[in-house]
Design goal:
single chain; mainly alpha; 6 helices; 61% helix; elongated
Length: 122
């Protein structure tokens, strides 16, 4: 039927699931993570820090991968080793200090500031 989704049989679904598992086992290794922006998240063992890093990374994940990673690392680096703690403790002025002058493609200081403050206030 034209325009309809293909009918996936149980056998086809099992075949695809096996292929995806095979690819996962093959490529789910640290040496394959660079230069993916998720590399900036995995460095944090603490779940709060991973969550903060993940929101920042996903918000800036457009453009060339190497530039994305540089921008993410710039923000996270300014927040120190504990970005979650930074957000919980920093006042608006301190948050603005790390945002001031930031630019990633069309995301500017104000956009980043609003993201971080809204994360802190959530």
């Amino acid at each position: 039927m034209k325009g309809s989704a293909p009918d996936l049989s149980c056998r086809r679904i099992a075949f695809l699931a096996d292929r995806f598992e095979e690819m996962y086992r093959c490529y789910n290794r640290p040496e394959y993570i660079e230069p993916d922006p998720v590399s900036t998240v995995r460095v944090y063992p603490d779940l709060l820090n991973r969550e903060v890093a993940g929101v920042i990374a996903s918000s800036l994940a457009y453009g060339r991968a190497s530039q994305i990673v540089r921008s993410i690392r710039r923000v996270l680096g300014a927040m120190g080793e504990n970005p979650g703690g930074f957000l919980l403790e920093a006042d608006d002025e301190r948050v603005w200090e790390i945002c001031n002058g930031f630019r990633h493609r069309f995301t500017d200081s104000r956009d980043l500031y609003e993201l971080l403050v809204s994360m802190r206030n959530s």
